[in-house]
Each structure stands twice: as structure tokens, then as C-alpha cells.
Write a structure and sequence with these properties.
This protein is mainly β. It is 0% helix and 66% strand. The N terminus is likely disordered.
Length: 330
Amino acid sequence: MTNLIPLISYSDIEDRRHKLDGPDYYEWWYSDFRFENGWTAVAVWHYSDWLKKPRVPSVEISIYDPDGNRYYEETVLKPGDAKASEEKCDVTIGKHHFWQDGNHYRLIVDSKKAGADLTMTAAAPPFFIAPGAIYSEGKDEHFWCIPVPRGVAEGKLYVDGQEMKVTGICYHDHNWGSCDMNRNFGGWTWGRFFDDEYSGIFSYSFPIHIASSPEPQVNSQTGILYLAKKDKLILCTEKIQVTTEEEVFDELTGQTVGSKVILKASEDNCQAKCEFTLQNIVERDHLKFAGWNTHNWRFLDTYNTEIVLDGKKDKTSGKMLHEKFLLRLK
């Protein structure tokens, strides 16, 4: 899609629709945006929605004003109302469309209540975890690729019938798998942080047996940290260490969540230490999924990172969002 150097032989075909056998196949394309005017947005195209049984296509968009008020729209359709290319990203669900257009992505959520018409251009190298599966055992497989770890976005938002021109930064990833995620995972944490110099993405999953326990200490087999400086990749490794130093009890869900987390990684000529401190829980969802209770949180954090590249130390800080899913709660 771009002239940026890809990691692990990423190519545009990774962002296509993937045909997997079985009634529990799922697939979604996710994008989020942070605009210069203080507004943010999240849009998800579900070709086969992992949170619905039987699987159906859906599109959802959340738009947040600078005060955190949410404008939400979801469209749920029948399988015959969705189509997607098997060569590159080109997904149509009802009247909504998300597709690769040369060196850009185009996104149209056709709703005046909560909608968008945006163009995304990558500004950091894509990656795809080799050999692609974040979990593979027998016929159970789960995949994740990130075509746009960081990009620039411009276009329009639509909120309650009003049109708003926007510019800002964006992110796009893509998940798919052959079975219910709670067959193989207890949950996961995912987040990213951007500033003028660095782009960071982290994720780590929880084993099933600790899904309902306090925040785990994560070993090198369950996570990843990606770091880019401007348009150059400087670190991408599964060898991470995550330590939860402080926790808080969320009374609304009855669950414990980490309030201060330290993530460390080191590979070749780059070492990184990232500290995330919880400021506010901005969103909670409780769902019934495949016979289990599922909780999803979205957190507003501050972050402080220390990065050593070729022996030179740099520090950066700011605000970020991250999310946590627990999939198997009784």
C-alpha cells in the first residue's frame, strides 16, 4: 500500500477477506481516529460479527466530542447484505463501505446521525505477526494484522445531521479467526500511544484460567510491542514483560483492573520501558457471549516511555486510550 518498509513480509492481500471453515468464523476491520479539534471516532466493519450468534454482518461507529459524549450508530444485516474482496481490503456492508484506494484507505459510514467520510494514509510501517496466527492449535486459529499502525486522516464527520470537517491521526487493524475467541483466550489488553516522534502499539492476552483473577503478570509468549520513530520501525517483539504495580476495584463491574502497569521490551539495538497510569474509565460494556459473561473497558491513561536506541536515551509522555476484554466470567 505504501513505500514504507514492511515487517514480516506484509502485503496488501493480508487485509482481504479470509475464508475459514465453520459456523464460528469471525472477521472484522477496525479503525480509530483522533482529530485536531478534540473529537475522536471508532468504526468497525464486522463481516462476521464475533459477538453475535448466529454470525451476521454489522457496522458500528462511535463518535466522541471533546467532553466524552458518545454518538453511536450500529447497522446489523443479513449475510447476503455483505461482500468483501479476497484480494485486498474492500468491504461493503449494506450502504457502508471501507476500501483500499491506491496508497490510501477510504471509509464511508452512511449515516447523518453518526457517520463519516474519511481518507486514511499510512505514516508508519505495517506489520503482520509471522506466520500470521496469534493462536494456532488444531483447527482453532486467530489472526491479527495492522496495515496502518499510524496514519493521517482527513474528511468529514456527521453528528445529529450536522457536517464537520476534520483532520487528525488514525489507526487501522484487522482480526479474523475460525472459532469463538473464548475457546482459547481468557481475554486481552490492547492499546496504543502517539506523539510527534513515536508510535507505539501493545497487546497481551490472558490465559483462560486467569480470566477472572486480578491483572496477570504477562510473559513473553502472550504479547507484543511495536515501536516506530517517525516512519521507521525501531522495535517489534513478542519478548515483553508486563508488571501490574497498582490495581483498583471497579464497583460497577465487580472486577479488578490495573491502574499502574509497566511494560518492558528489548531487542537488538532498542530497549523500551512504558508506564501507563489510569486516569479514568470512560466506557464499560457487559455482554453475554457464547454462554459466558464478557466485560469490556476503555480507559483513559497517561503514559511515560523511556526509549534507548543505539545507546541514545529519549523520553516521551502524553495521554492515551487502551482497552481490556475479559471473555470468560461466570
